[in-house]
Amino acid sequence: MKHWGPGLLAAVTLAACIPQRPVARRDAAVPETPRQIAAEKPETPQQQDLQEQRLLQSALDRQNQDKLNYKIQPGDLLEITVYKETDMNRTARISGDGTITFPLAGVIKLSNLSVPEAESLLAQKLSDYLVRPQVTVLIKEYANKQIYVLGEVKKPGSIEIPAERRLTVLEAITLAGGFTDLAAQDRTKILRGAGAGSQTIQVEISRITKQGDKSADIYLEPNDTVYVPQSFF
Fold first, then answer.
1. Where would I find the H helices in the chain?
2. With b meaning 16 or more CB within 10 Å and e meaning fewer, what string describes 132-142?
């Protein structure tokens, strides 16, 4: 049997008395918040571009969540598709009493439902005739036309376009509370459309506010997204 000397025995005893830090578990990834992303300080132009893309994606994720929580209203135009049943696909406008007429399902009330709830209800109605129907509902046009202002503004979110006139990008930012102190005003973007037809329009705010160039104050279209990035310096 080996005999430990007094020094080695004391070291082992001391180590046993030191509280051990718990090992961090690697659980499922938690989505980054804009504040967490902004806390990182990019040092190169490439890092700045990457951080701006992450901030934009975070803002768009919030916007998509808001759209999922939106309640369908009379006058909304829906695009409804049923997987592998192309002859049933329809574009339908919600009537004044909140209903649409859909093949096999008949008259069905969708107003005051979220998009996932409308999909579930339509699938339930069609399940009497189809095997496990998969229904997708997209809001193609909102009855209350709106735009979104995201990023470095004081009150980010959706803004309803007035029925009597159009909104410009600077008016929309003003309605969103104006810029924050961290806003990179001249890198403001308008995101328009989706998919292959989408486009990004750069807006130099200083041309409007300092040079008086009203042509730079672009009119917004329904469902446009105005994004104000953060200044890194």
1. 6-17, 34-38, 45-69, 115-126, 169-175, 205-209
2. ebebebebeeb
Contact 120, 108 (CB under 8 A): no
CATH of domain 77-141: 3.30.1950.10
More confident residue, 21 or 182: 182
- The tokens of 127 are what? 């399940």
Q: Quick one: which of 183, 194, 140, 148 has its CA closest to 169?
A: 148
144-228 belongs to which CATH class?
alpha beta
Does the pLDDT at position 140 exceed 60?
Answer: yes
The arithmetic mean of pLDDT across residues 41-64, rounded, is 67
Backbone angles phi, psi at 175, to 5 degrees: -65, -25
Per-domain boundaries in the chain: 77-141, 144-228
Average pLDDT over residues 157-185: 92
Choice between 119 and 232, residue whose per-residue pLDDT is larger = 119
* CA pair distance 137, 90, nearest whole angstrom: 10
